[in-house]
Amino acid sequence: MKRFRAYGAAAVAAGILFAPIIGQAGERAVVVELFTSEGCSSCPPAHAVIGRIARNPDILALSFHVDYWDYIGWKDSFAAPWATRRQKAYASRLSSGRVYTPQMVISGKVDVVGSRAPQVMRELQRALETAPPTPLLRIVETEGESEILTNRHDTPAEIYLIRFDPVRETRVLRGENMGRHLLTFNVVRTYRKIIDWDGSAQRIPLPRDLDDHPGQIMAVIAQRHGQGEVLGAAVVD
56 near 115, Cβ under 8 Å? Predict the structure, then answer.
């Protein structure tokens, strides 16, 4: 596992594209969150970066579209107030101390400008090299029911369910990106806390009151309380 992750980090740093595997189930060692907006002219390069990152089988890459740029001429099709709230919660303790786009948060611990690919890749390499060798979360299906299996951890956490579209295309008609066709990757459409987890080994059933959205992918993440470090993640097929 460590050897594989070391290779993955080196490949990401070199900008190598992995085969598309984001639809496959499995654990993720690192979670990357891009806070972006269709109304932000400096964001499209960051979309390209997150698209490359999303191909790495050790990384869960997510795009959270914020709504505070909607007033400048273009209302983001995927913007949500909860995405803005999540970014603001990070701002109180990350190095920048502010919200901006495109902001990329890695493992809930460090933020970088999402369009600065070399810096992003360096931080990803550090995160992959220091990721725990044992996955914290797994998704299993038993008798038609999906469950989260957690390994024991010394820190309680919150477990969130996320659903995202692998890729979306938008033709922007107004605002800073007027006339552009934007490709955005792993666009978060559902964000919901499942449980306050006490750190024990458990089997946690996934919610059953979820609407079916063809083409969307489901993931779960465990994060320290107070929107701290992201401890682990898993993707549901």
Answer: no
> Which residues are bridge partners to 137 per DSSP?
150
The answer to whether 164 and 217 are in contact (CB under 8 A) is: yes
Tokens linked to 146 = 């999906």
Tell me how far apart the 2 most distant CA atoms of the chain are, in Å: 51
Contact (CB, 8 A) for 146 and 205 = yes
In the chain, the N- to C-terminal Cα span, in Å, equals: 21
β-pairing, 103-106 with 110-113?
antiparallel
Phi, psi torsion values for 124, nearest 5 degrees: -65, -40
Going from the C-alpha of 146 to that of each of 51, 71, 149, 207, the distances in angstroms are 28, 41, 10, 9
The tens digit of pLDDT for each residue in 139-152 reads 887 777 788 889 99
Look-up of token digits 């320290």: 224
C-alpha to C-alpha distance for 99 and 91, rounded to whole angstroms? 6
Round to whole Å and give the CA distance between 212 and 197: 26
DSSP for 187-220? Answer: EEEEEEEEEEE-SS-EEEEPPS-PPP-TT-EEEE
Residues 210-228: tens digit of each pLDDT: 666 778 899 999 999 999 9
- pTM to 2 decimal places: 0.87
Where do the domains of the chain lie, and which CATH numbers do they carry? 2-236 (3.40.30.10)
3-state helix, strand, coil in the chain (%, to 5): 20, 35, 40
